[in-house]
Design goal:
Blueprint: H1 2-27, H2 33-41, H3 43-51, H4 56-70, H5 80-97, H6 101-118, H7 127-137, H8 142-152, H9 166-184, H10 188-191
Length: 192
């Protein structure tokens, strides 16, 4: 009788350990590998592979590391009044673009960093870390933030003009709007 009990305990222990190992490997992207990462990151997967000169293993290691570091992050809700304030500020940025595109793009960059920080992502003072965390949770639209940040921080050319033209700034602002909308979306917490 005690042998049967010991056997049952051993079987249950092995099942629990097996499940724990499976969940750990699954969380790290070890099962399904690239397929899971490609599905999760979408266009961000392709950008990361390109940045690694086509080395999918290096890109997948980077993406899996991002998931490990930031996958457990839980976005903080925005109060309706705060959401309205951010939306009004974004509208002002868009209106300001007509008169001063560069200032508007710079303000959009700051506003995205601020909203992301309030939602619980790493502080905007640490752009690369914030971008990595956003890529885990908003992979489809994170490139808009990357693009607006790059344009906002473009240096002046030798002729006194910014390297980013007005059309490039306009396109960056439009693309960044998608991430902004994700971050202030009232239904976002239900999808996270």
């Amino acid at each position: 009788m005690s042998g049967v009990i010991i056997a049952l305990i051993v079987i249950v222990a092995v099942a629990v350990i097996g499940a724990a190992v499976y969940l750990t490997l699954r969380g790290r992207g070890s099962f399904g590998g690239g397929r899971d990462l490609k599905k999760r990151f979408g266009p961000e997967y392709d950008r990361t592979v390109a940045r690694h000169d086509g080395d999918t293993q290096a890109a997948e290691r980077e993406l899996a590391e991002r998931v490990e570091r930031h996958g457990g992050l839980r976005e903080q809700p925005l109060e309706p009044a705060v959401r309205e304030q951010y939306t009004a500020r974004w509208t002002a940025v868009q209106e300001h673009f007509v008169e001063s595109p560069r200032v508007a793009v710079t303000e959009a960059d700051r506003l995205l960093a601020e909203v992301a920080t309030v939602r619980g992502f790493p502080d905007g003072e640490h752009y690369d870390e914030q971008l990595a965390a956003l890529s885990v949770h908003h992979a489809d639209h994170v490139h808009g933030y990357r693009r607006v940040h790059r344009v906002a921080n473009a240096r002046m050319g030798t002729d006194g003009d910014t390297r980013a033209g007005t059309e490039e700034m306009r396109e960056a602002l439009i693309e960044a709007r998608k991430l902004f909308d994700d971050l202030v979306d009232t239904h976002q917490l239900q999808r996270s």
